[in-house]
Amino acid sequence: MPVVLVKIVNGLSEMPLPSIIQKEELNNLQEGVDYTNKYFQGVVVLSYPLMKLEDGTKFFKVVLQDMSNLSSPINSINVLIYGKMAEDCSRTLHHGDTFVVAGFKLAKSPTLTESGRHPCHLEVSEDAGSAVYVRGTFSRICSMILPGTESVAPKYAYTSLNQLKDGTIVNLYGVVKFFKPPYVSKGTDYCSVVTLVDPSNAKLTCTLFSGNVHSLPKIYKVGDIVRFHRIKIREYNGQMQGITSGGFASLTFDGTVGSPIIPRTSSKVYTFMEEELKTIKELRAWAASNLSISGPPAKLSDVQPMLFFDLTCQLVGKARVDGSSFLLKVWDGTKCPYPTWKVPVEERDLEGEKILLHQLRNLTADILVYDNHMQLAKSLKIGSFLRIYSIHAKQGSADNEDGSHIEFHLHGGTCYGRGIGILPENNPEVVELKGFLDSVDLGGSLDMESMSSLEAEGTFNNVTDIESHLQRCQQLPVTVLTDHQDLKNTDLKTILNSPAPQQYRIRAKLRTYKPQKLYQSVKLHCSKCNSLQEVPIGNDLGLQDSAVTALNTVFHNTSWYDSVMWTSEDQKERKIVIHFVRHNELLQHPKDTLIMIEGGTLKEMWKLAKRFKCVIPVRSVEDGLQLLDLSAPFLLQGNVKYYGCKQCSTPKPIKSLISLAAEQRPSWEPSEIAQVLGIEPLQYVFVMRFTLVDGTGPLNVYLFDYEKFFQIPASEILASNYLQQKMQMTMNTLCPPGRKLDDLPWLECFIKSYNIKDETKHQVYYQIFDTTVAEDVV
DNA sequence: TTAGGGTTTG
């Protein structure tokens, strides 16, 4: 039997044991029996320090309690572990863990054992062919934080949301469908309104009050899961309503499938047992298919005018504005693609690190908060991490001088959950944001926008400085060579009159280009057969095939993935199956997890792709899973749909992915996935025709670019308005609309000529190589 | 007591 040391914390509810081995009860253990194919399972109630025996062998001893036989006079046993396994176990095992020992030897204990303990002990080692499995319990984690709380857990009953009755006080679980972060009420308390749903399809809106903001649920986003204890149910306007009663307590959990189950609470004592772990997992799985939970919150770079959005950010400055509004200056490391409004405030009223405020001046957003939000805003600490809910990105008024700017308002009131939440430093999204903020280069290049703000701040002394800088910019070529700097320029006429193939350096102007609608320039290219094809558009075309047609869909819980099936609520009662690929028997963090989906719509797949590392649309066939027809993407990752070449691919069964899943740290690279699945991946590419002029003659050259020329990956542009705008701006710089030929900027390019011959004709084509848009243009 | 979900109009 292989040696396996598996640590499962908050993972699977069942041990991933080989089916050949069978469970043995404590009271059946007898000397002289062969336990090679048996296992014993118990909870670690005692462990001793790791020791070395006289011959140097490592030795570790634990006491396991048989939880299924607690009433028996003998309910625990010593386990002696030898060698490397002793070392591994001493590091891995903790009090309260469930420990499975397979393939052990049973021997009589040489000394008198304590009362209640079995007279024999288990001997475990790699040499004896033993295998051990460890499952950390949640109560262990709680007990580490709060020693002694796990053994006295009262048993709670939970009421489902469709069973609530007027005038009762109940315990319940729910998935957050809507919430208002705690705000100062007009009375004496903080208030938070939370709407919950659960698999009974009932809905409950709870109005929670507390003088202490920390005793209200710490909900950060829709989809979080809460457990409420002692909430009072009342009828209000013909509907059930929850309201805080004496002794109200709550736990809040991240609702993401596979993420660590760590309760957020201010309670000093709470219980959390295995059963409840199961409830959270069930609710997560239910919510994943039944609730529309938006993807990651917007960044400043995604902001669209006229919309409301939630922003996760860091506070860098704050200032009093007037009696009804207050200014928060925040950043998230990205830049809003539109000019943003700067709220004028008195220098002396602005709180925050002056140098940092200056450094971040082009990255901060001014958010004006009104009325009831002012009190909380004033109390915020500079440097803290916030999530501001339902910020209004308002188009600046047109009569204003710079009419196109965006203003950020947090209006008064709490409609739509409008408010400010303070995120703790250990919140995973804050940890991620901090990492990102640290990586932001504050040096930055001197772009036009930062120039004008510098001017406003007096760094540029007068208008002439700016004009001369502008002129200098215009003289520099807008594209540059990445190689071949030593070549001399050739004029276009000479190129046209020369035989192909050859390579040239040219200096020319871009008179026109095709396609004018830039999104039409994105194609899919097969590097094997050299074919080009259009990118399939939008809708579910090609994914119809993934419908789960048969009720007896192979519902495999195999060794390498876990499967969950849902039925959609609509009349079609569509079946959706998601298969979560495990790694070393464990479910990983969603961001590291590959999932496979049957019966999902493209929209659902996009949503899942935002949460999980990869999504592969599949269908079930008799002997397992297989890819859909290659009209559908074979993989969705991030914002990108990956397609395979129908002509050059030989799809293999999905189980070919096992080899990748078994890697130490599966990277789930699209290229690797394609390779093991027998797919020849198509690459996204920009294909454009530039008409260049230099006074000697026009020349049509083709641009065939994956990402080098525009410094924008062709694969990502279709999913990003921001990148499309950026590309449009670049093209406007290369070929400014409405400009006379004389006023067009120069491009420096490296081009190759080549021959295309067929039976009837012979033509010379030209293609741009080793050229990129200049740094100050991007 | 407060608020009782469904965007300000600065």
Automatic annotation (TrEMBL):
Coiled coil: none annotated. One of its GO terms (cellular component) is nuclear telomere cap complex. The keyword Hydrolase does not apply. GO terms for molecular function: G-rich strand telomeric DNA binding; telomerase inhibitor activity. Keywords: Chromosome, DNA-binding, Nucleus, Telomere. One of its GO terms (biological process) is telomere capping. It comes from the Eukaryota. It is found in: Chromosome, Telomere; Nucleus. Residues 158-288 form the Telomeric single stranded DNA binding POT1/Cdc13 domain. Pfam families: POT1 (PF02765), POT1_C_insert (PF21375), POT1PC (PF16686). CDD domains: hPOT1_OB1_like, hPOT1_OB2, Pot1C. Belongs to the telombin family. This is Protection of telomeres protein 1. It comes from Eubucco bourcierii (red-headed barbet).
